[in-house]
Amino acid sequence: MLSLESYPDRLQYGDGHFTTLAVRGGAPQNWPAHRSRLEEACARLAMSPPDWQSLEDAVMKAAAQRGQGGVKVLVARAAGGRGYRPAEGPSQVWVSHFAEPAHYPLWRSQGISLALLPVTLGTSPMLAGLKHCSRLEQVLAAEALARVGSDEGVLLDDDGFVVSAVSANLFWFKGAVLHTPNLARSGVSGTQRALVMAAQPAQVVQAPLAALDEADEIFLCNALMGVVPVHTFGTRRLAAPRLTLQLRDTLG
């Protein structure tokens, strides 16, 4: 489809960042953590921060309108500039709301299957941890996931270390010890990941795929899905997710 309409020029370079909040009973969940994420991204990407009070008001209004589901906040650098060189000025901000993905309740109650994907994530310490708008790796991973036929997929970095799932952070139990990948070189440091680690200390590790092959329990999390247990990794059926469900109950 050809369109002659204008588009946000900075987004063609991925020059922005975003966060996605769950909405329950018309209220955004964990807003302070999402605001902190946006503040960190603005600072690390040298973007002008938005007016935080105006943004909070817009988030609250969108959440009240949605009632149940999610709110997305997208921040892009000031419009204009020449080529890659940015212009000075206030950042552009969009706030939208949407329904919860229909499959998430089923995932939470029944668990999911997980498979290794052939897409690897490049390492970039400068951008690691941020939920920036350059998401082509995740787009390719989602396309590969559709061909694999699993519910979600594991992504490794270029050196073969576990990073995350396509749309979620990843944890695993070995015995009673909780582990999660080190995201200092790639991946997104999610707000739900932080909640999990506040509820139960985790060993942050640079782990090869073998760590998942040997795990007793595996689960995924993000702000919308919450904590989702994995019942099958590859061809291996995992044990009942007793510790995962206990942790999920603790988080509420």
UniProtKB/TrEMBL annotation:
Annotated keywords: Folate biosynthesis, Lyase, Pyridoxal phosphate
SUPFAM superfamilies: D-aminoacid aminotransferase-like PLP-dependent enzymes
Keyword Lyase (UniProt): yes
EC number: 4.1.3.38
Catalysis performed (reactions): 4-amino-4-deoxychorismate = 4-aminobenzoate + pyruvate + H(+)
Protein's UniProt keywords contain Lyase: yes
Entry's Gene Ontology BP terms: 4-aminobenzoate biosynthetic process; folic acid biosynthetic process
GO molecular function, one term: pyridoxal phosphate binding
CC cofactor: pyridoxal 5'-phosphate
Family to which this protein belongs: Belongs to the class-IV pyridoxal-phosphate-dependent aminotransferase family.
Subunit structure comment from the entry: Homodimer.
Name listed for the protein in its UniProt record: Aminodeoxychorismate lyase
